[in-house]
Amino acid sequence: MLPIQLFRTNKDLILDGLKKKNFKALELVDKIIDIDERRRALQVENDNLAASLNSASKNIGQLMAKGEKEQAEELKQIVAKNKDRAREVAEQLAALEQEQHDTLVQLPNMPHSSVRFGKTPEENEVVRSGGTAPDLSAQKMPHWELAARYNLIDFELGTKITGAGFPVFTGQGARLQRALINYFLNFNTEAGYKEVCPPFMVNETSAYGTTQLPDKEGQMYFAPEDGFYLIPTAEVPVTNMYRDVIIPESELPVKLTAYSPCFRREAGSYGKDVRGLNRVHQFDKVEVVQLVNPANSYDVLEEMVNHVERLLQSLGLQYRILRLCGGDMSFSSALTYDFEVYSAAQERWLEVSSVSNFETFQTNRMKARFKDGSGKTQLVHSLNGSSLALPRIVACLLENHQTPDGINIPDALVPYFGKKTIS
Fold it and tell me: Which of 303, 362, 356, 312 is nearest to 334 (CA)?
């Protein structure tokens, strides 16, 4: 959530940022400023009334002590009227504060100055690329055919048990999932991330804290009887571990990694874009999260990008890194890098990770703070990234490492998988 101080001091900066993010309801900026001016005026009246009531109470006591009852009674009548007005002001103030909050949460985060104008993924900037395209035979198969050939994934069984988008991994497919999760977690912990195992459901306050609410209600599965949401990413419970916490500056940066299943209601369309593992409703992912001093957050973002890049390199996959344009960024991000891996059999790029800096947009909601050297309390910056999401990684591993005799396992993964080939 954007700080209200920014609206008081730099309206033009906010408008420029919202335009860059292709946000249409620009009139909300003036509405927020108007609400804030009325709220501040009421706050002044509220403070003055409180001071007046406090002073009058003392005067009444003094008049009564002197025996000046008539004057004391007159003052009591004035106090009664001021109390009535104070109640009215307090009610109006509470209503304005709620209206201001409800309007503020409709606005996305401001994009970093390096973010380009643009509306579509085609306008994203390719920062760099790596890896080489595999030399596959003319008989190359997409991952869903490979999964059937080697009995790795049963899509129809998942549909029977639950519905479309809930695949069942079997045999060597399940073993590959477990190997990737363990490898990703170890890769992250060796880089200094602390592993945590969070809940896979969160309450409304947690979903609000990381901005899933009120922006993404329709994308989450909800258990109404308990008021819990199934998590769309481990980012939500992990970042909320520091909600309402003041972190000692000496403990920054906080570096956490977690595995979780992820649940998303998105996209029930048809065609090659959602075939097989390209888009599913339940999938496994390993996440990295950092809470850092604002002075260092963009250095940390680059560090996290480099970390995910090294992980992809170790899997022997062709990849590219994109800096997203304003119109393709998430609601809460200030700057996002997407990682895409080339699917050699489908002949298309598949997104496998996003690494983002949210600055104070999440931590302002969560009140995640630290005390600097002068003792001043400040909001930390929050960052997170997929490290990595499994479905499309599995798809590209199967497709890009296929041979006529089986599927080769990358060397880094062999100790976790236990063999060099799926056959």
Answer: 356
Pairwise CA distance, residues 214 & 369, whole Å: 23
Q: Is the Cβ–Cβ distance between 265 and 281 less than 8 Å?
A: yes
Amino acid letter, residue 231: I
As a whole number of angstroms, the longest Cα–Cα distance in the chain is 107
CA dihedral 26, 294, 112, 244 (to 10 degrees): -40
Nearest to 266 by CA among 141, 391, 358: 391
Q: How far is CA 62 from the centre of its chain?
A: 58
Query: In this structure, what is the dihedral angle of CA atoms 105, 110, 111, 116, given to the nearest 10 degrees?
Result: 100
Rounded Cα gap, residues 187 and 135, in angstroms: 28
Task: Give the number of C-alpha atoms closer than 13 A to the C-alpha of residue 192, restricted to the C-beta side.
Answer: 9
- For residue range 272-297, list pLDDT tens digits in order: 567 899 999 999 999 999 999 999 99
Helices (H), 247-352: 297-314
Which tens digit of pLDDT belongs to each residue from 136-166? 878 899 999 999 999 999 999 999 999 999 9
Helix (H) or strand (E) holding 337: strand 335-343
Phi, psi of 176 (to 5 degrees): -65, -40
Closest CA to 228 of 270, 269, 263, 179: 263
Which is nearest to 191 in space by CA: 299, 301, 306, 341?
A: 306
Cβ neighbours of 192 (radius 10 Å): 10
CA distance 174 to 179: 9
Distance CA 12, CA 43 (A): 26
Nearest 5 degrees, angle CA 233-CA 235-CA 239? 155
Q: Which of 231, 298, 292 is nearest to 256 (CA)?
A: 292
Q: Sign (positive/negative) of CA torsion 360, 362, 363, 367?
A: positive
For residue 386, give the nearest of 284, 299, 279, 263 by alpha carbon. Answer: 284
241/210 Cα distance (integer angstroms): 11
8 — phi, psi (to 5°)?
-75, -30
The span from the CA of 379 to the CA of 371, in Å, is 9
